Predict the structure.
Amino acid sequence: MNIHILSSSNLLGKIAGEKAATLIKQSIREKNAANIILATGASQFNTLEYLIKDKEIEWNKVIMFHLDEYIGIKESHPASFRRYLMERFLNKVPKLKEVHLINGERDATEECIRISHLIQEYSIDVALVGIGENAHLAFNDPPANFEVNDPYIIVNLDDACRNQQMNEGWFKNINEVPQQAISMSIKQIMKSNNIVCSVPDKRKALAIKNCFQNKVSNLYPASILQNHDFCDIYLDFDSASMLCNL
C-alpha cells in the first residue's frame, strides 16, 4: 500500500484518474483486455472525470463490474449507482466490451448469485474504490466480514453510513435511505491486481486516521487495504489532516 497526499481534491482526482488510466492501458497492452471495478459516490467525481479524459484507452477491450447498489432503488432514483455510472461514466466513453451492473430492484439473493457467478470468470486488473466516513469499503460497514468468500453479499447499512448518504444530498431525509444494499465483499475487492483508492474531504479525516494509523481491524474495514501490495491511496490535505508522521 502506498499513500499519496495531494494539495487539493481536484489534483487528487487528476493523479488518481491518470494512475487508473495507466493501469488499464498496461493491462490492454499485456493481454489485450482489462477488467475493472468502478465505485461511485462523491469521492469518485474527480477521479472518473480525469479517467474518461484519456482518449488512448481502448474501451472496447474493457469489462466493467459495479461495486455496490442499494436494494429497492429504481435506476431512475437520484441515488441509484447504476444511474450514477451511466451519467458520469458509461455515457461519456465509447462502448465497453461488457458492462455488469447490480440491479437492486431484483430479488437480492438471486442478484448476488447472478453477479457473483459472472465476476468469478475474471481476474480484476484495476479496482477504483473509496472509503466511507465510517471507514467502510464498498458498503461493508463495521464490523465488516473479512472472511466471507462470496463475491457479492447482502449487507445492512449502519446509521453512520446512511447519514453520510443523506448529507451528501442523495436523499431528502434519513427515512428515504435504504437499510440494505448489495455490496462486493472485502475478499473480492482484495483479489484485484491493482487498487486505486480516492478519498478527498475533511469529513473523511478520522476514518483515514483510523484505517492507516491502527492495525488492520474489521472495525475499520478499509484498513484491510494495508495488506494489499499494489494499492495506491490518494488523499488531499483535508482528508490527510489527522495523519501523523507521513
User: Anything to note?
Assistant: The two ends are 13 Å apart (CA to CA). Helices lie at 9-31, 45-51, 81-88, 108-119, 159-167, 186-190, 205-212. The mean pLDDT is 96.
